[in-house]
Write a structure and sequence with these properties.
The protein is of the alpha/beta class and 299 residues long. It contains twelve helices and eight strands. It has an eight-stranded parallel beta barrel, surrounded by five helices. It comes from Streptomyces olindensis.
Amino acid sequence: MAPTSTPQTPFGRVLTAMVTPFTADGALDLDGAQRLATHLVDAGNDGLIINGTTGESPTTSDAEKSDLVRAVLEAVGDRAHIVAGVGTNDTHHSIELARAAERTGAHGLLIVTPYYNKPPQEGLYRHFTAVADATGLPVMLYDIPGRSGVPINTETLVRLAEHPRIVANKDAKGDLGRASWAIARSGLAWYSGDDMLNLPLLSVGAVGFVSVVGHVVTPELRALVEAYTSGDVQKATEIHQKLLPVYTGMFRTQGVMTTKAALALQGLPAGPLRAPMVECAPEEIEQLKIDLAAGGVQL
C-alpha cells in the first residue's frame, strides 16, 4: 500500500522527479534505480516521479519505462507514492503508457502538456481527459509551457478539475498571478514544479513540491514545507534563502545534467546521460560544487 493520501495532499507534500540511472554502456541500471529510490525515500520524500523529464523519458523505451516503475515499486512502493510519467504529444501513445503503468502497479500518473504540436485548449482538454479516462489512477497534470510551447489556461484547468481522477497540477508556469487564480478556482492540489518558487507557491495555496533539487536537499525541503504549514513563515523563509545557491546552481544548465553530476559527486547511482543530453563539462562541475557548498550540501 502507498502512503495515506488526502484530497488536499493526494501524493504527499515532498516528491522528487527522479533521474534514471544508466550503466556505463548506457543500459538501464535497475539496481541503481532501486538504490537511488531507497536513498530518496529514506531522506524524506513522500513520493517519486518516475519517467519524467528529469528521468530522460524522451530517450527510454516503453518497455524500459515499465521496468523502471516495477523496480522502484519493489524497492519503495510500500513507503512512497510512485507516480509514473506517461505524457507524450500523442494521445493514443499516452493512453497506452497510462494503461501499462497501471498494470505495473503505479500509484498515480503524471501527464505533461503535449509538446511541439501546440494543440489548442480544447485539444488539451480532450487529451488529458482521454488519458484520465483510460485508467482508475489519480492524475497530476504537468503545466510547463517553457518546454511544451502551450500553457494550460486557467479556464481549462477548471474544466479538467471536474474529472474525478484529475486531482493535482504540477505548476512550472512561473506565473504566481495565474497560479493564484487557478488554485482558487479549480480546487486542484497544487505542486510547485519550479524549485525557486517553492515557497512563493506555498504562499498562494500550493500544498507541496515536485522537485529536482530534492535529489540533494530533501530534508531541507521537508523542513521548509513543515515550517510553513505550521505557521512559522520566518523559518520557512530562512530555509528558502539558504537554498538559493542550490536552486541557482542546479539549473545553470539542464537540471538532469547537474543532478547526475551531483549524485556522482555523492557516490550515488546516476551514470551517463543519453544523447542528445551530455555530461557537464569540468568547469560546470566545479561551479556546481561551489553552488552546492554555498547551500550547505555535503559532497
